[in-house]
Amino acid sequence: MLRSVAATALLILAGCAGLPEPPAEIALPYVKLFSENEPGDALPNGWRLWTLSRFKKSTEYKLVDTDGRTAVSAKADASASGLVHKLDLDPQQYPLLNWQWKVDDLIKTADNTTKQFEDSPVRVVVSFAGDIDALPLDDRMFFDNMRLLTRQQLPYATLMYIWENRAPRNTVLPNLHTSRIKMIVAESGRDKVGAWQDITRNVYEDYKRAFGAEPGRITAIAVMTDTDNTGENAHAWYGDIVFRRIAPARTMFVSD
Asked: Which of 11, 27, 108, 127 is least surrounded, with the fewest CB atoms within 10 Å of its CB?
């Protein structure tokens, strides 16, 4: 039994597990900005390290001054870990997720449709609350197995925005181990390599499209650069991350 549990957990950890539930630090209704920090080795305010497994090498994260702003530099060398920020946010009230990212190259052999090569030079990861006890038996067993081995509770649902080599933008890719993690291709191909990208996604609509249901509250957001499956190197940068309301439509009044 323990051998099968370990095998199951290590399989998903060889890919990319969903965010663990953060510990009981204060959950904020907004994301603290990277640009409010000084460059250096300290973690950004409001963020903490997210380690997938003690068996995995960690990606190196550092605050740097680049292009006139403070951003997070991520360097992966056959590694996988991230930075996570606890939240308590209603995605229906604040559905627009805006962020900036940049990569100096793609991961040549990465393919997020194949678990053996499931890596991405950049990921922005959002976790959602929900009733785990109401999930199908297979998902509940998977959650139990992961908690038994890792001592971490996976969230009810996780969206991962990724930069894919080939899959078209806006494609929803399933996680090959659990239905509670969905990847959405936010950028694809080499055309924008080396330049800052400013991306806005409607997480409320993306969740409904990916999971076919209304989302619960947002419990955390994270960034992750991982090359643990391909064994390659990757260097990326993350700019500020913000949730926003949808601006109300303007009404035109025409006087007589």
From this structure: 108
Residue 39, Cβ density class (10 Å: 0-12 exposed, 13-18 middle, ≥19 buried) = middle
CATH numbers and ranges of domains, the chain: 2-244 (2.60.120.260)
For the packed helices 137-150 and 2-14, what is the interaxial angle rounded to 10 degrees? 90
- Tens digit of pLDDT for each residue in 188-230? 999 999 999 999 999 999 999 999 999 999 999 999 999 999 9
Q: What is the pTM of this model?
A: 0.89
Rounded CA-CA distance 206/231 in Å is 30
Number of H helices, E strands in the chain: 3, 12
- 138-154 in b/e form (b: 16+ CB < 10 A) is ebeebbebbeebbebeb
CA quadruple 57, 58, 64, 69: dihedral positive or negative?
A: positive
